[in-house]
């Protein structure tokens, strides 16, 4: 194996699942994410510095733009110049889902009105969640997602969270 590695015909891979087992692969092949750990693993260990930097940059993007999509965050990250490595849409999607689970941002569907005017109706987007935010009709910019009138609803429209009986019941729950 050492002779093949010296001739650059074979490479040794770090394994995330089986750390005690050595894995070798031809240099012309790309290893599966199941073996290497995926986007956020570097040389067999989780790259927490990279993850934290991506989280911070995505949060900054969303807070400054008020509303953003995955593509918007990816563009922001690329323009920021913070990262020397290539950042992909899949990585941004995973970071955004982590931020949703960490309760730092909210995932929602664009209504095309108000803050969502620049985002097509029905597209998934993200907004920052304020710490200690209390539910109220005036501070919540989104309607109940099961409402059939969601595409017509906006804070200043005929159909709005302020006038919606079902929305108020949802808040009281």
Automatic annotation (TrEMBL):
InterPro entries: RNA_pol_Rpc34 (IPR007832), RNA_pol_Rpc34-like (IPR016049). One of its GO terms (cellular component) is RNA polymerase III complex. It comes from the Eukaryota. This is DNA-directed RNA polymerase III subunit RPC6-like protein. One of its GO terms (biological process) is transcription by RNA polymerase III. It is found in: Nucleus. Its main location: nucleus. Keywords: DNA-directed RNA polymerase, Nucleus, Transcription. It comes from Medicago truncatula (Barrel medic).
């Amino acid at each position: 194996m050492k002779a093949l590695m010296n001739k650059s015909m074979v490479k040794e891979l770090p394994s995330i699942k089986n750390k005690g087992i050595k894995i070798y692969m031809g240099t012309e092949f790309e290893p599966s994410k199941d073996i290497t750990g995926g986007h956020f693993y570097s040389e067999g260990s989780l790259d927490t510095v990279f993850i934290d930097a991506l989280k911070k940059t995505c949060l900054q993007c969303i807070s400054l733009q008020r509303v953003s999509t995955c593509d918007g965050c990816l563009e922001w990250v690329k323009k920021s110049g913070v990262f020397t490595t290539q950042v992909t849409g899949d990585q941004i999607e995973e970071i955004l889902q982590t931020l949703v689970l960490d309760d730092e941002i909210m995932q929602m569907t664009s209504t095309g009105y108000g803050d969502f005017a620049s985002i097509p109706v029905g597209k998934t987007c993200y907004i920052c969640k304020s710490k200690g935010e209390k539910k109220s009709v005036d501070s919540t910019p989104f309607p109940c997602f099961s409402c059939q009138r969601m595409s017509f609803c906006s804070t200043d429209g005929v159909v709005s969270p302020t006038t919606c009986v079902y929305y108020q019941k949802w808040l009281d729950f």
